[in-house]
Structure formats: structure tokens, C-alpha cells
């Protein structure tokens, strides 16, 4: 069974994330969405809320792709999380050159820690390249329209947070 791991904070999950998840699901038999517990980032949504949003959104993708997609919170090293879930590959989405520079360093470090786990980069679809969770939260906080960046259920959760 080919298992992939797509890690991130998903605070909140965006249409860009969902595009990468849908495309990554075509490459593996099981896709684990690693939900990072990153206390330094101070997420807007709790871990439970982020996992719930991922499970809700990915249920539709599981039906469409036939690939099992599950959420898995983690707080350890990414490479250790990959080994914990049995992933042979880590999926990373790239939006711009700046993303590549950071990700390139991460791949080198992860390969030094465990060279059996490969990293696969998926370029963001052109329509999603500008989407960043941080910017989506800022737009929502200022009562802007985020409907181009997130699904309706996520948009409603953002509205509730900033009400």
C-alpha cells in the first residue's frame, strides 16, 4: 500500500490545500493529512476544529478519488510522523519560488534524518497560487469576502470566529 503524508497547520483548510489533497490522492492508496500542532503559530482554530474541517472536506474527496484520506495530528518531527503513519512519501505544495527555497532545505534535512522517505512537490494550480491561510484569516477578520479561497462551511466557521 502506497501511503503519502501531506503536512500543514491547515488554519483553516483552503481551496489551495484541497487542490493539493485531491491531486495527491491520485498518487497514493492512502493519504494522511498531518495536522501540525504548532504552539508557536498560535492558530485561530483549535486542533479539534482543524481536524474536523479536514475530515468534513476530505470525505467528499475520498468519495471522488476512491483514496482513503485521514487526518492525523502530530507534534513531533515531520520525518518521525511519516514513519509513524507508514508514509513512503511526503507531499508538499508549492506556490512560489520562495516556497521552493524553504522546502528545498527541509527536504535536505529530512533526507539526512531518513533517506527512505521521498518528498514530492505539487505546484499549486494557478487559480490557487495566491491563497495563504494567514491572508484568508486577515481578510475574514476585516469582514472581507473569502468565498474565493475556502469552501462555504469553512467560510461560515471563519465568520463565527470573527463575529
From TrEMBL:
**Per the database record, which ranges form the Cytidyltransferase-like domain?**
5-138
Please state where this protein is localized.
Answer: Cytoplasm
Q: Where along the sequence does the record put site: Transition state stabilizer?
A: 17
Specify one Pfam family: CTP_transf_like
Which residues are listed for ATP binding in this entry?
9-10, 17, 93-95, 103, 128-134
Give the main location: cytoplasm
Class of the enzyme per the UniProt entry, highest EC level: transferase
A single GO molecular-function term is: ATP binding
Q: Per the similarity annotation, which family is this?
A: Belongs to the bacterial CoaD family.
Function recorded in the entry: Reversibly transfers an adenylyl group from ATP to 4'-phosphopantetheine, yielding dephospho-CoA (dPCoA) and pyrophosphate.
Give the protein name, as stated in the record.
Phosphopantetheine adenylyltransferase
Q: Which gene encodes it?
A: coaD
